[in-house]
Write a structure and sequence with these properties.
The structure is a homodimer. With about 425 residues, chain A is α/β, with parallel strands linked by helices. In chain A, about 35% of the residues lie in helices and about 20% in strands. The first copy, chain A, folds into two domains: about 210 residues, Rossmann fold, CATH 3.40.50.450; about 150 residues, Phosphofructokinase domain (Rossmann fold). Chain A has 14 helices and 13 strands. In chain A, helix 1 links the parallel strand 1 and strand 2. The interface between A and B is large, with 70 and 72 residues.
Chain lengths: ~425, ~425
């Protein structure tokens, strides 16, 4: 048992937001406010930038009811950043400043809520503090809809995005079949290097409303094979729904979104309108099949912020990951990320256990969709993916509505002296 | 009191679907199945095409529980069409065929569920049946997310689309503000001639998460004024959210989406298939402001099929409009559309009453956003719009979920002999 370390804590949020990053943030804040060891709870404005600029919100001054609404408030309530710290061996200016701000506020706990880059930031700060002999416990609280963090069974945020994508795919499936004329839909999901979100469209297929074809960036995309697939399905059914990851690329590594930009339309100022991937593929499909009715649909930012259709399982697990980070840090743990380990109870029900991972292992490693979850043809997913993902999307969000619309947390954000 | 007319009924669905067109369809089916006057309840496959092709589903053979799930199943469960009947004076082939099928199945009630064009279809069929001396009661059951039907206070389907749009706008607002860097979002809503759906983004503003600028097709769009608006807001706040109707046009009537895409395809009714407006405007904004971070977001088909965030008020009213159509027809009424009239009770609470409108008045008339709901500058809406729309989006959908995803109705669709 470590000696109890008394002092303030900082929680910061970094990287692209999700529907539940505030749920894990709330897990940290609530647990820290209730902890005897932690003297003050500060929220960093826009992640590490808030530390560098000494803009720290005093979370103790917030209304507890508003804080609780963070569970179902999308995006990063404290503000996010994409600032990347240099190696301290190259340039330690930022680190000196962080140490100065930590000392000023007697910060002994630092929690950072984000994806790979955020774990890298945690790791670098921790190393520097150790070298400087400043006692501070540093924990990563994961987040990424991309589901690509190393070690953890899944990432907070993925399941809610997956649930939005699967639900919307089901609804679009119904819509796309309404006429007895032909219709091809191309659904574009986020995911530059990992196809987890695109694979989530297959969950809709469990209920008879899934896409016909799914292409992930884990496999090289072959345009000719793709067009053959679409033509075969369209000819047989007059309907075809295709799901694609934004990051699909050919065998030479060229992104498919870059294809056909030669023929992109031009706007009023003469700039080329670089359409999205879905629009691009539709152009190619029409080139093959003639003027068939097509729709390209981008799930765009909605897939990462649609808190109204979040997975309550994801919300609760995210809260628990934040809570665990504080409890473990107070107990003496440092340099870890709180991730998830899956098990099944004796009735075969999914159980999610909190598990600690070394920050150094997590930082800058990507987890892709494994081969056994992708079908042989590379145009769909296997049952292994469904078995993996389905337990994660259970439960409707216990969101508060006011006058028919979501009631999101309103924070006062009082800056600490 | 009219003499009771015994016979079968047909319910058909037409035009673009919505989240609640099946709720009004269920109102018709359930009430007709329970009516002593109606001997058989047939669902026409793909609207009037199902009548012409004599493909009629026997609704009496469906599982009542599955039928009830229609309340929260998006899109048109019976299938839709965009078939336009010719004037019978020009060519009465279709009308003769419809009469033949009606006679074959002893159809004495015809309910048609759709928008302006569908009311036109109802009206034409009714006129022909009268001329032919075939007794048949014909009622329109309205539907259109566009909210542009004449007479009725609002249209079934509008509120659910509005609720999706307002909720999503709130979530996107949160997302678009996550970084402390600049961000411009252009949200594109459906609406060729009427701006009701785009105006619905303003509901998010009631909760502090609305767009800065809103442009409806009711006003001529001036590109220079638009760019000045965006520049002013962006310069002041580093953030700017703009909502636009797909149908915005300049003072010469030229659609803004056509600035750069002259050759959009045309549907069976001669409507241009518009799309890509958001992307187009972003190109123009970058032309003015340089390479600022911009996102164009199309609510695309989601806005008309996102049943998971439908307005329960809309669901219940839609059901009631279908129910009323049957009750009124059985009581002797014909040639009417069941619309809504708004009143307020003594406590000022919104009340929706069913009201009958002449088909001939409704057919092919469009109701636009009135001048008092648009601000002087033409870049926002007034409180009059909020007061109008807010009562309509109340209530969360009482949807059934199964394994974390919506459980939609599964119909057997047994074709009548």
């Amino acid at each position: 048992m470590a000696t109890q370390l008394k002092g303030a804590c900082i929680i910061g949020q970094s990287g692209g937001p999700s529907s539940v990053i505030n749920a894990s943030c709330y897990g940290v804040i609530r647990t820290a406010l209730d902890s005897g060891a932690i003297t003050n709870v500060f929220g960093a404005a826009h992640g590490i930038n808030g530390v560098l600029d000494d803009v720290l919100y005093d979370m103790g001054k917030e209304d507890p009811k508003e804080l609780e609404l963070l569970l179902h408030t999308p995006s990063s309530a404290l503000g996010s950043c994409r600032y990347k710290l240099k190696d301290s061996s190259e340039d330690d200016t930022d680190y000196k400043r962080i140490l100065e701000v930590f000392k000023k506020h007697d910060v002994r706990y630092f929690f950072y809520n984000g994806g790979n880059d955020s774990m890298d930031t945690c790791n670098k700060i921790s190393k520097y503090m150790q070298k400087a002999g400043y006692e501070c416990r540093i924990m990563g609280v994961p987040k990424t809809i991309d589901n690509d963090l190393y070690g953890t069974d899944h990432c907070p945020g993925f399941a809610s995005a997956a649930k939005y994508i699967a639900t919307t795919t089901m609804e679009l499936y119904k819509d796309a079949r309404v006429y007895d004329t032909g219709m091809i839909c191309v659904l574009e999901c986020m995911g530059r290097h990992a196809g987890w979100l695109t694979a989530a469209t297959a969950l809709a297929g469990e209920f008879g409303c899934g896409p016909d074809l799914i292409y992930l960036p884990e496999r090289d995309f072959d345009m000719e094979a793709f067009l053959n697939d679409v033509e075969r399905i369209y000819t047989a059914n007059k309907k075809c729904i295709v799901a694609v990851s934004e990051g699909i690329h050919d065998k030479d590594g060229k992104f498919i979104v870059e294809y056909g930009q030669e023929n992109a339309p031009v706007d009023a100022f003469g700039h080329k309108q670089l359409g999205g991937l879905a629009a691009n593929l539709i152009g190619v499909i029409k080139g093959r099949l003639g003027n068939v009715k097509c729709r390209g649909i981008e799930f765009s930012l909605m897939q990462r912020c649609a808190a109204h259709i979040a997975s309550e399982t994801d919300v609760q697990e995210s809260f628990l990951s934040g809570k665990t980070a504080v409890e473990q840090a107070v107990a003496g743990v440092t340099d870890k990320m709180v991730g998830y380990e899956r098990s099944y109870d004796k009735d075969g029900n999914y159980v999610c256990n909190m598990k600690l991972f070394d920050l150094a292992d997590v930082a800058n490693t990507e987890k892709k969709v494994p081969a056994e979850m992708i079908n042989k043809e590379g145009n769909g997913v296997t049952k292994a993916f469904i078995d993996y993902a389905l337990p994660l999307i259970q439960g409707q969000p216990k969101m508060t509505f006011e006058q028919g619309l979501p009631r999101f947390a309103k924070l006062k954000k009082i800056v600490a002296e």
